[in-house]
Input
Amino acid sequence: MTVSDPVVEAVVSTVCRTATEIRQGLIGRRNTVDEANPSGETQVEADVWADDLLADRLSSIDGVGQYASEERSDVLDCGGDPDTETDAYAVAVDPLDGSSNLRSNNSMGTIVGVYDASLPARGDALVAACYVLYGPVTTMVLATEETVTEYELTGGERTIVRRDVTLPDEPVVYGFGGRVPNWTDAFSEYAREIERELKLRYGGAMIGDVNQVLTYGGIFAYPGLESRPEGKLRLQFEGNPIGYIVERAGGRSSDGERSLLAVEPNDVHGRTPLFVGNTDLIDRLEAALE
Ligand code: P6P
Output
């Protein structure tokens, strides 16, 4: 099933082909490099390599006016301004989310947001978002204005495995990032409640944890911390695309006060507290942080 918008379809099929190549190319690219990304995080060879592949392929699609990624400081001008041209989109990418899991051989992901606005942009300017999960099987979850679909990726092609993906009504799992002593009192109290209700699933790469929430129901959070109230995760590359996908799947997203898609961005690498999951759990979270 292809996406109705030809530019979005070109982005999605390019990501599928490139993700298959990224997975095959992880071996031999597990070492750290001397550089840090714009968020100050140590990069591994695969971070830089995956970003170069995706930038090269996505920036050459007619209709992609901008490319930005977690691994590069500046927004790449690909020859179209999404704010003034109707058929120009901005693509924001986390090329290898959770790359620190490469050393320990655990799941990682690639996250892509397609915005109908110049970056940095609010999440409600997204027209599509997807993530690839490099798990035992390589899968993609794609959300558009119409629906959420899960695919298996083989040989650069995608095959539908789940249509109209929605969060199960009864939540089962939770995953909370950050060090416990660094949580705020309000979040700690909320976490104590949730720990008594749900099962812990936290793997160090958001995509693996979010996919658990999308599959079993529950909540994933990387909260604002005492030492870093803005949290760790980036709004443009992680918060908005994942918030869009979970909201399209019938759940909610929040920065602690409002939908992530309503958060005004101040910088392309700006961070945000991030909460996604079943509506009731997010409603309770926002009440707990009031
Ligand atoms: P911590 C990976 O580095 C990442 O950006 C997310 O994928 C993940 O959820 C989080 O950071 C893990 O952070 O502090 O638990 O290592």
